[in-house]
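[Automated response] Your request has been received and processed.

Submitted sequence:
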Amino acid sequence: MKIPEDIRKDIPLTQEVIYFDNTATSLTPIPVIEAMDEYYLKYRANVHRGVHRLSQRATHEYENARKVTADFIGAKFEEIVFTKNTSESLNLVALGLEWKKGDKIVTTPYEHHSDLLPWQKAAKKYGAKLEIIEGDDEGNLDLADAEKKIKGAKLVAIQHVSNALGVIHEVEEIGKMAKEEGAIFVVDAAQSVGHMEVNVNKLHADFLAFSGHKGPMGPTGIGVLYIREEFFDTFDSPLVGGGTIEDVSLGEYTLTQPPERYEAGTPNIGGAIGLAAGIKYIQKIGLDKIEKQEHKLVKRITEGLSELEVPWYGPRDLKKHAGVVSFNVPPLHPHDVAAVLDEHNIMVRSGHHCAIPVMKRLGINGTVRASFHVYNSLEEVETFLSVMEELVKSLR
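Generated structure:
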């Protein structure tokens, strides 16, 4: 797929730099900024309970953003809760569930810290047991071990795509295992939403989290927590206050219905509106086109790195490799490689990528990470590889 010129025009930074840092945050199209500007300049007001026309408009646009988001991932309107980001969403899940000593929590060794620390904290605080599914150094899970570990589990939490290795996990299959055991199934979809199809029902998700500023190309500070409807009566709202109640006396309170029950205080109204605009932008392009473009880039960059004898990480089966490629250039530190690339206007991420257990497993202190979105091109990858070739030559 040749990148349409209108996408380049919509995202001016693509004309100034080669932006390969999409796993950390994606670039923002002008239509997203325009939608947010319209809110701030033309109908800036708080949502809900306001009678005046500005509040009515703001409420309509905010709740329409919820509908757009729900439709995008196959959820019901009331199952969508707006949060700050993926990390907050996953922490809310851990805080809102009831735990007892001996409960089993199952996760993987490849999780982002945001989908590991909340479960470690819950296990420590309530005496639950944390068990880890086995896997290999490419990030491939041992599904037989997963089936064994999931037996008797209270909760299973897994990332859809690894931000460190780029591996696409068998979330649908593991979701089926969790459902057969009656376990709660939590999906970290931070690196998949906006890059490939994500449907909460196909994945068997009870809870699913993602951030607006990554795949959906929305603003920072807005995230989503999907809560399956059947959990409304048992999932306790971790945060209460303005907007969450139906009635209050000096001695007690009654919570209102979801989703407002789970959104305490004034929400990120402009952020939700921007997220919806980003989703619409993604839908206009087409998820299938985005996924195909990223696959082409992964194929070429991994071929090129292999030709240069540069070690790269993640699954060799490229059908399981999303648009995230981590690598190193020994003996250079990842930050040094990133600095060299920056000198050539190529933006990559370097470090442990909030996945320190993965780095420890591989025996490294970090990686350089190139990650893609639909506005990235094969020409940009070729430029990257030419810079890498010169760097490698200088070390030999």
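Summary generated for your ticket: The radius of gyration is 22 Å. The mean pLDDT is 97.
If you did not submit this request, please reply to this message.
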